[in-house]
Amino acid sequence: MWQEYFIPRSLDQAIALLAEHAGRARIIAGGTDLLVEFDRNVRPSCALIDISRLPGLDRITLDDRGWLHLGPLVTHNDVVSSALCATHARPLRQACWQVGAPQIRNRGTIAGNLITASPANDTITALMALDAVVTLRSMRGQRQVALADFYTGVRKTVMQDDEVLVDIACRALGQQQAGVFLKLGLRRAQAISVVNCAVVLTMDEEGRTTDARIALGAVAPTIRRAHQAEQALIGHRLSQAVIAEAAALAAQAAQPIDDIRGSANYRREMVTTLVLRALRQLAAGGVADEAQAPAMLRIGAAPSSPPDSPPMPIRTTVNGREYTITHAEAGHKTLLRLLREDCGLIGTKEGCSEGECGACTVILDGRAVMSCLVPAPRAHGATIITIEGVKALWPKGAQDNLHPLQRAFIEAGAVQCGYCTPGFIMSGAALLCEHPQPSEAQIRESISGNLCRCTGYYSILNAFRRATERDD
Predict the structure, then answer these.
(1) Triad 115, 120, 125: Cα angle to 5°
(2) Tens place of pLDDT for every residue, the chain, 472 residues?
(3) Is residue 290 part of a domain?
(4) Do β-strands 383-385 and 361-364 pair in parallel, antiparallel, or remain unpaired?
(5) Are residues 47 and 122 in the same domain?
(6) Are 362 and 372 contained in the same domain?
(7) How far is Cα 297 from Cα 426, in angstroms, rounded to an integer?
(8) What secondary structure letter does DSSP report for 341?
(9) In this structure, what CATH number is given to the domain that contains residue 448?
(10) Are residues 22 and 70 in the same domain?
């Protein structure tokens, strides 16, 4: 795991710590990739500098020059819920909506997704089509880098060890512009892209394309722009013939590989298919976003500042009770293990240890998260709710010491082996706080990050419906 854990009080202090440790430290915000790398022993031990609670870094703003700015702590769910992004960066919003599951989107940041530098990362493709620019800062100064120049290979960027990504900016889409993001995965949620694409077009008053940007993901070592396909669109209306030619040219820009998710030939064919669909959607005037009232599993406002004291000993509040954990080992484990081993709260389960199954879902500072992907020191100064305290999430007061969703699970026979049940209940309880009368789509989205190995999903959905019908 990590050697030391720091919680700076300001961004300047974080940058100074990064310089002081000279290549032996990493910034952590969401940590949804970093914790998996530690668990798999593919990342060497280092110091972590936690900036996740620094104030003002999670803002999405539009400046006077028409540039949309995302701070380094903006999460995927922040983008999904942003009216500015819905209006001015629709492809990015669509991409964020398709990343992971609600618990992942509550922790994972856009900046982290860019820095991870996987060619299959969805937000990179969307931001590449939006001609994004990133700002990097260190003790040596500040520089801006076009996202197109940011990547040097698979999981490689131009960032130096002492630099922090402090801003992501792209030109806000105007009235004459439209964009769309499409993704092909092996399942509906928690799926890495087999292929993805983002298309942004600028049209004149007669419907002719004056500018085109087509970005392709998961088909080359880095995100690839399909320049020949873009040129084929310039000066033309989106007729079926023009669309077909552009889609075919886009496939020629791909240099895919064979891997476990798909063959190179399949990926190349799917580039043609996705670009066809994207251009046809734009020719038809686009489609409404699916995420109009998303199930984000967020309850109230998150804390806006880090705790005053260092992260050891860890002082945290779980289910309304204060805990102080003093032994040094606690600072080098996950939140999941802290809750189970140091707080004695064994209802939260360990299933996959990589954010895939949702059995470890808890509410951290008002956000549903996968506790296997959260460092234990992040609990310092935090408020946490686990399955043992879930009844507190029912505003009308729980009867029989159970949350209504717990009782509904019993009545609907939704509990089989029971191992996944705490995670489902935590996700569902957060949903009912956010949407007391959720739609079927919201129910399904709320548990898209939870897996039932017994495949008891129909009974689980029935339990959700039963719980929403209760008056108590």
Answers:
(1) 75
(2) 899 999 999 999 999 999 999 899 999 999 999 999 988 888 888 999 999 999 999 999 999 999 999 999 999 999 999 999 999 999 999 999 999 999 999 999 999 999 999 999 999 999 999 999 999 999 999 999 999 999 999 999 999 999 999 999 999 999 999 999 999 999 989 999 999 999 999 999 999 999 999 999 999 999 999 999 999 999 999 999 999 999 999 999 999 999 999 999 999 999 999 999 999 999 998 665 555 689 999 998 877 789 988 899 999 999 999 999 999 999 999 999 999 999 999 999 999 999 999 999 999 999 999 999 999 999 999 999 999 999 999 877 656 789 999 999 999 999 999 999 999 999 999 999 999 999 999 999 999 999 999 999 999 999 999 999 876 5
(3) no
(4) antiparallel
(5) no
(6) yes
(7) 9
(8) I
(9) 3.10.20.30
(10) no
Rounded to whole angstroms, the Cα distance separating 375 from 316 reads 13
End position of a domain, from candidates 54, 80, 97: 54
Q: Taking CA 425 as the corner, what is the angle to CA 423 and CA 430, rounded to the nearest 5 degrees?
A: 100
| Euclidean distance between CA atoms 405 and 372, whole angstroms | 24
Yes or no: say if 388 and 345 are a contact pair by the CB < 8 Å rule.
yes
On whether both 94 and 163 belong to a single domain, the answer is: yes
Residue with tokens 């398709």: 98
In a domain, 298, yes or no: no
pTM attached to this predicted model: 0.96
288 falls within a domain = no
Q: In the beta sheet, which residues pair with residue 211?
A: 202
49 and 66 both lie in a single domain: no
353 and 437 in one domain? yes
- Spatial separation of the C-alpha atoms in residues 83 and 138, rounded to whole Å: 31
Residue 236 CB-density burial (10 A; 0-12 exposed, 13-18 middle, 19+ buried): middle
Q: Which of 38, 29, 120 is nearest to 76 (CA)?
A: 29
Evaluate whether 300 touches 104 at the Cβ level (below 8 Å): no
Who's near 467: CB < 8 A, 6+ residues apart?
404, 405, 407, 408, 428, 432
d(CA 142, CA 147): 16
* 162 residue type, one letter: D
Domain span at 63: 56-283
Q: How many CA atoms lie within 13 A of 91 on its CB side?
A: 35
CA dihedral in degrees (157, 162, 165, 166; nearest 10)?
-160
Residues 13 and 144 in one domain: no
- Both 349 and 254 in one domain: the answer is no
CATH of the domain at 7: 3.30.43.10
